[in-house]
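// run 5 | inverse folding | seed 20
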């Protein structure tokens, strides 16, 4: 299993990460690498295909060499047992992929609880931090940081969402009922078809710009892209510039991603693969 959000839903618990989750360097909040099990049961369309083929076609986030090495080292298992790359998967088998997880860093900015009532939290969300675990982020998310550093136990129910690159006030409800009630008000505010009388909540976005910005209402008709994923900086792309536009953060992110493609034998030698029990 890879870590892409578009892949089939798999189990795996963020609490498998070490207790000392974070370390800071050069203004970034980083997560100490940790072992993480991704699990799923065989889907109908996979039955009869080889284990290697399933991983290459269904989870194309690593190379063929990576998956062959992972199977040989016992880091990809069938029902908890070691197997071969040519094993043909069957109905109801459980696939487990143990991988050494290296999360992307985010800006080391404080996550502040601005207010708390008996039903809600108001949290100051910094830019560069996703709200929920997704893709390459599990511990470096707002929900996980609140649990790990603020001791906020239990289920947190976001009332609305803010993109990873957006900072601002985020509301969490302490119950799904309250989250849905206020969420409906926000959705009415955003709907162009909702009657004015139903719009009881106002949500505003403020952009910080470089230079002397003109006064009055300004309409940007060009596409807007992210130029630095960690810092959340954006710029508009004029059509004539589109082919030359390369986000500044891409090189580093691609370099970090390529490190994860190395065969598993090159990382975390202390991990012991699980073996088939003896007779």
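// decoded
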């Amino acid at each position: 299993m890879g870590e892409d959000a578009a892949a089939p839903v798999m189990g795996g618990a963020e609490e498998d990460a070490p207790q000392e989750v974070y370390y800071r360097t050069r203004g970034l909040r980083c997560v100490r690498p940790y072992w993480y099990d991704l699990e799923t049961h065989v889907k109908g369309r996979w039955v009869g295909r080889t284990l290697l083929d399933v991983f290459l076609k269904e989870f194309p986030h690593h190379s063929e060499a990576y998956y062959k090495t992972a199977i040989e080292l016992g880091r990809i298992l069938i029902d908890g047992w070691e197997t071969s790359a040519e094993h043909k998967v069957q109905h109801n088998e459980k696939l487990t992929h143990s991988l050494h997880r290296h999360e992307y860093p985010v800006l080391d900015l404080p996550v502040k609880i601005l207010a708390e009532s008996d039903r809600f939290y108001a949290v100051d969300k910094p830019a560069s931090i996703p709200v929920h675990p997704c893709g390459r982020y599990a511990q470096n998310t707002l929900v996980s940081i609140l649990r790990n550093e603020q001791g906020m136990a239990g289920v947190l129910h976001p009332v609305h969402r803010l993109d990873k690159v957006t900072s601002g006030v985020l509301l969490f409800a302490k119950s799904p009922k309250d989250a849905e009630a206020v969420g409906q008000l926000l959705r009415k505010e955003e709907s162009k078809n909702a009657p004015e009388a139903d719009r009881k909540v106002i949500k505003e976005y403020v952009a910080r710009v470089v230079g002397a910005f003109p006064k009055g209402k300004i309409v940007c008709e060009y596409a807007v892209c992210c130029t630095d994923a960690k810092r959340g900086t954006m710029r508009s792309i004029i059509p004539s510039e589109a082919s030359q536009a390369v986000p500044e953060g891409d090189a580093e992110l691609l370099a970090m991603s390529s490190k994860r493609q190395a065969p598993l034998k090159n990382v975390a030698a202390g991990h012991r693969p699980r073996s088939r029990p003896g007779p």
